């Protein structure tokens, strides 16, 4: 909302959200906000908008999906130092946006998203994953990431997974296996916070060796089948944007123009209704005055 005011967008660019209980930018305005930050090469700012899109679960527009993945991949390419909360938010955004794209970019984003969320799950517990987040509370995000790899292995088409995403998953698994959960939580928190760990979390941590073994097996299969994309996620998303973004934006603009026309029609109807109500009240007052004059 604050960024909408900063850019001086009209009130008509806002929408009522039943998810966060308030008024927030609509998808078209979200896209303009993300695009403005991208043009300034402010990838962190763009990701802050994508984070809000994630909270609103507003990834229905293809333009929003592509711009969000573009912003996330650009920011990740800078190798930022992230808190566990930031990793959770970026992981959720990658996952939710990636689920909307049935291609190598989408699957690579899903894989990385699952891994980042899985890292939070292992180090801080499943409650830290879904608290105030549009994410499932079912444990096993690392397992679901491996399921993405398995899907690509079994695919008869041209789907591939980005080597960069695979390397990130491997590093996360290695890091989790080498560092005890208690130490990891302490490292990532400068201030004292309560870490809620239950039996399901302990069970999930116990599966780390199994996940690592399965990852190595699937990674080898992907290599053998030639289903590892050597280009970076940033490059893949850039290619996707070049191929699809213009067409998606044209469709969005056409739909937005229709929406503006509908808003104008509604505005005129409201003005007409207001005028009718004024006339009705005026006539009622005149009738009362006439009745009083007769008496």
UniProtKB/TrEMBL annotation:
Transmembrane segments: none
Keyword Coiled coil recorded: yes
A Pfam match: MRP-S27
Keywords: Coiled coil, Ribonucleoprotein, Ribosomal protein
Subcellular location: Mitochondrion
InterPro entries xref list: mS27/PTCD2 (IPR034913), Ribosomal_mS27 (IPR019266)
Coiled coil stretches, renumbered: 246-273
GO CC entries: mitochondrion; ribosome
Protein name in the entry: 28S ribosomal protein S27, mitochondrial
Organism: Bagarius yarrelli
Taxon lineage: Eukaryota, Metazoa, Chordata, Craniata, Vertebrata
